[in-house]
Each structure stands twice: as structure tokens, then as C-alpha cells.
Amino acid sequence: MDFDPWDPSFVADPYPAYRELRARGRAVWCEATGQWLVPHHADVSALLRDRRLGRTYLHRFSYEEFGQTPPPAAHEPFHVLNGNGLLDLEDPAHARVRKLVSKAFTPRTVERLAPTVRRMAQDLVAAFVAEGGGDLLTAVAEPLPVAVIAELLGVPEADRGLLRPWSAAICGMFELRPDEDTAARAVAASVEFSSYLHGLIGERRAKPGEDLISALIAAHDEEGRLSEQEMISTCVLLLNAGHEATVNTTVNGWWALFRNPEQLRELRERPAEMLSTAVDELMRYDTPLQMFERWVLDEVSIGDTVLPRGAEVALLFGSANRDPARFERPDELDLLRRDNPHLSFGAGIHYCLGAPLARLELMASFGAFLDPHVPPIRLLREPEWQDGYVIRGLRELLVDC
């Protein structure tokens, strides 16, 4: 099977193509995407930490100097929003912003949220079971992380329905070659979400609370404070990155469990013992983020292949997480896997800041379904995959109880 991220059959099961890519070499040129594909765990892990590569090049070069065409002026609201978030910043700006955000988004913040997250998950699962089942994606997997982020940011309950559509529209731009309709939706969502957060930040400046926005406003060090745009971009990134990863890990994970009934049976029998390793294994087995793109800022070699400045690199998380050079029996689901250095949260300076929160949400969601007082859920029909490859997940997951 060829690497073809626009082919539905490839998106449904990219793992045979990954095996072929790993056999072909450490860096494989893809004419269709104009990228060097990197499929091996050791290389992906190393390049995530290599400062000769960057999420952006604009901190060092102009578009023209880097041989790139500037995006259309109409797309500017999206690029301003995205470019000021931690995911796309590079040092020294990244180090400054991450340090300040970390002052507000602390382990204690996540710890304090834990009882609320567990209660939210239990309430969603209880309502789902009372209905006799349905679409697990829309009834449980999506509402939980959106509600958690809204609680974290201090978004009033009446406004929370706005968040998911904004996030979905913005995340459309992270796919390969988004079309103009996708860009237009992302720009509109960027403008609306930014305006909303601008108003919320203004309210918190006047009347601080116990929420993350208030903490971001208060965070400062000897180098100053976060700008308003940096705060807005941080809040949007927390929603986009956090909710997409958690939603898709939840539904992809349940689909993997249904296909591995013996593993599911063991998990139901021993949830307290197995849940922690199970969550990491489900993230490894079918990672929600299949590809992470980087630019070559200074010439770098991968094996015998020299990648020049200006080349684009596609780090294939989905392939790295199934690499037999790093994982024993990589294509088998093993919920008790202890040695599991999966790359689903990234690595290096862009390691996911929200990883502890994502783990908390996943533990709460799967744990609520595995409660012995909750009837087991059963798959009603085989699901279909969404069109997106970079952020990869199911259209729906229909189950009954």
C-alpha cells in the first residue's frame, strides 16, 4: 500500500503502508505531499528534540528567504492565532511563553480538577446508559474534554456550546492541503473565538477568579507578562489540542478494545490494575495524531540522506508507535505493556503541556464505563473513519448497553 493520506482505505488502516516505509529507509521522499517521511521511532524521537528543525521558520527567515509563498492576507486571523500558540512558537519566544503558562497551568491545577473531571465523566456515562446507548463520540467522548476545558478557563456554561464548532473549524487547517472552504471556516472561527476570549479576559482583568484565564493574567516574571494575543492563543490551543486528542483516543480506543475482546474482558475484570497502562497503550496503538510536521532550519542528515534547509519533514507518530525496533509485538494490543515510550504527546520543547490533563480525562472516561455497576457497552456496527489523516478519528461509534 502506498502512502496516500487522501485515500479513505489508507486512512482506515495506514499501518501496512508504515511497515513498507520503515523497510524502505529512514527518510523517504513523498512526491505527493512534498515532504520527507520519517517512519522510525528512534529518528522521530531524536528529531522532535533537534533544534535544527522547527515548527516554524519565521523566527529566522522570511517566507521569501525560505523559498515559501506567504499565505493569503485573508488567512491572517488564523495565522496570528496559531502562530502565537506554544505549538508553533520556537525559542526564545517559546521558552518565555511556556515558562509563564506553566506558572498558571500547574500540576496542582490538574490535581484540583480531578474530582470534577471524574464527576463529569460519571454523569455523562450514567446519562448515556440511561438512554440505552447511542453514539459514544457525541454523547461522551466530545462533551467531556470540552466541558473540562471550559471549566478550566472559566467559560460560563451557557457559552460552552460555542467551543466545539470553533475548535473543529480551526483544526481543519492542520490537515494536508486544506482547501479554501476549510480555510474560510478556520478564519471565521479564529475571529469569533479570539473576540470571545478578548471579552472574557477583559472580564477577568476587572474581576479575577479561580480559573486559568485569571492565572494567565496574573502570571509574570522578570521578563514581563503574557501579551493578550499570547493568552488568547494559549486558551485556543488548550481546547484544540486537548479536546481533539482526548476525543479521538476515546473512540479509537474503544474501537480497538472491541476488536480485541480478550483484552477488553481482562480490562473489565481488573480495571484498577490495568487502566493506567491501558490508556497509554491505546494512545500508542492508534494514536490520534498521525503526523507532526517540521521545517529543516539547518541542514540535517538522517542516515545517508541529507535534508537541506527549507525541506519539510513529516514525523510519522503512527508509524513510530508501531516500530518493531522499539516495541515488542507492536501490532498487538497489550494493555499491560510496561515499556511504552509512545510519542503521542510529542517530545522535546513541544511536548504536550496538557498531557497530565489528557490522561486524567481518559482515565475518568474509560474508568466510568468500566465501573462494575455500569452495564457493559456493545458495538452495534463497524464504524467509519473521518476523512482527516493528520488528526485521525472515527465519524461515530454506535453502541448499546
TrEMBL record:
Pfam families: p450. GO terms for molecular function: heme binding; iron ion binding; monooxygenase activity; oxidoreductase activity, acting on paired donors, with incorporation or reduction of molecular oxygen. The keyword Metal-binding applies. The keyword Oxidoreductase applies. Keywords: Heme, Iron, Metal-binding, Monooxygenase, Oxidoreductase. SUPFAM superfamilies: Cytochrome P450 (SSF48264). Belongs to the cytochrome P450 family. This is Cytochrome P450. The lineage of its organism: Bacteria, Bacillati, Actinomycetota, Actinomycetes, Kitasatosporales.
